[in-house]
Amino acid sequence: MPRPIGWISTLSKDGIGNLAPYSQFQNVSYDPPMVLFSANRRQSGEPKDTVRNAQDSGEFVWNMATFAQRDAVNRSSQDYPFGVDEMEKIGLERLPSTLVKPARVADSPVHFECRYMQTVSLPGNGAGAVDVVFGRVIGIHIDDRAFDAEGRIDIVRLRPLARLGYLDYTSVESKFTMVPPHRDPSSISDMEGPQGAQRPVRTASLA
């Protein structure tokens, strides 16, 4: 089954950037907006750099990974030694964040600035042990080019990546709309989030 990619940027205590993709990523709620990503531990039992940095700094950024960025996403998955800045290593342009210190990937069309909430560590066998990191979204950035003529995010044009099984990936290339049978089509604005479809937000602070 397709799993959204959490392309997470963090900053170490020494101010060194880190960028890595996680295929166990999901939203948790929308009011307040919260997300999670989970990272398998290293064979040594130590947490991944992203987890370590998020816990130490209290912040992280989710960058939307798109089909156009697939090669950069793949290269950023390499297990570099702690202290290597992946954005610098693979030549990605960065943008400063507004409310948190970790940088954003400039070519990513959507970013969530997140405040670290907590980590739930689950037992496993060796690298099967996993750290589930929760964060509250306190800022959102959406590139103007991501919107369609009606002010909605054109998700099909953006083609966000998702992980499948094996070494396979996919991207969103189609969509369809369904109204729940028990709902009046004129009364479903709450399902479109607090901003509403006709109020696109390029940059929003939710802190």
Number of domains: 1
Separate helix tally: 4
Largest sheet: 8 strands, antiparallel
Order of helices and strands: EEEEEHEHHEEEEHEEE
Query: Averaging pLDDT over every residue, what do you get?
Result: 90
**CATH homologous group name:** Electron Transport, Fmn-binding Protein, Chain A
Instruction: Indicate the proportion of strand residues.
Output: 25-35%
CATH T-level fold name:
Pnp Oxidase, Chain A
Account of the 3D structure:
This protein is mainly beta. The chain has a single domain (3-205), classed as Pnp Oxidase, Chain A. Helix content is 12%, strand content 35%. The protein is built from 4 helices and 13 strands. Strand 11 (161-163) and strand 12 form a beta hairpin. It starts with a strand and ends with a strand.
Name some characteristics of this structure.
mainly beta; Pnp Oxidase, Chain A; 4 helices; single chain; 8-stranded antiparallel β-sheet; 12% helix; 207 residues
